[in-house]
Amino acid sequence: MRAVFELGRKAYLNHKEIAEKANISEETVKRQISYSIKILRSILTVHLFLYPMSAVLMLNKIFK
């Protein structure tokens, strides 16, 4: 899945080119890229929310 995602994002290949290179169907390429984006979005959401919140809580504790 990672290789498919990287071919699309780093090598700038379209779905058809990725499918040919990886010897899989275009539909599989679409599903894998979509799933990869979904995973990255959830990871980023957690990190973008939790890290600033933990920093705020830590600073509040320090400066009280």
TrEMBL record:
User: What biological processes does GO assign it?
Assistant: DNA-templated transcription initiation
Q: Which domain of life is it from?
A: Bacteria
SUPFAM superfamilies, A to Z: Sigma3 and sigma4 domains of RNA polymerase sigma factors
Protein name per the record:
RNA polymerase sigma-70 region 4 domain-containing protein
Keywords, A to Z, come to:
Membrane, Transmembrane, Transmembrane helix
Q: Which GO terms describe its molecular function?
A: DNA-binding transcription factor activity
Fetch the InterPro entries from UniProt: RNA_pol_sigma70_r4, RNA_pol_sigma_r3/r4-like, WH-like_DNA-bd_sf
**Bilayer-crossing regions:** 39-59
Q: Which organism is it from?
A: Chitinophaga oryziterrae
- May I ask which residue range the UniProt record assigns to the signal sequence? none
> What Pfam families does the annotation carry?
Sigma70_r4
The RNA polymerase sigma-70 region domain covers which part of the protein? 2-41
The cross-references to Gene3D superfamilies, in alphabetical order and at most eight, read:
Winged helix-like DNA-binding domain superfamily/Winged helix DNA-binding domain (1.10.10.10)
